Amino acid sequence: MKNKFAIIIPLMMILCVSYGQVYKWTDSQGVIHFSDKPHEGSETVKLPEAQTYSAPVIKNDPDTEENKKNLSGNADHVYTQVAVTQPLNESTIRNNDGYVMVVAQLDPKLFSGDTVQVIFDGSPMGEPQPTPVFQLNGVYRGTHTIAVQVLDSGGNVVATSDPITVHVYRPQVNMGNRPML
Questions:
Q1: What is the mean pLDDT of the chain?
Q2: Does any domain span residue 50?
């Protein structure tokens, strides 16, 4: 029985590869045709490689001894990455109401007791919070800088991201504030 599978599986693989050809030809009226079967006067179309995606490897396991120490407060807080991932740097935001969604990426994830603070145009905006997602309201049009910083339970800055620049554009200054007619 094992010998049958040893022969059948390679034959099936060869058959699958042979069915991967695409042929192209133009008929007498100038219409281009594609088929998986050869036609008189057809040429073989070279297909590009299939696109694939590999998920990124997660570097930090929350159950490691280092993270357990950090969660219990026995070691210094160390963030290897603090960055603003949304909006993108130098992006233009078109929003009549002045809403800007800010998303921060932290590696490792936020330690227990730590909070995240948005720095908008060089000044803290709003209260620090335990999540890395913020919605800024009433952002005026113009060019602004956004950064985030991580604060420990005592309010000390543990890490700060590089600032990004965004351009807020409102098609009409009072468009979002006009009464409905």
A1: 75
A2: no
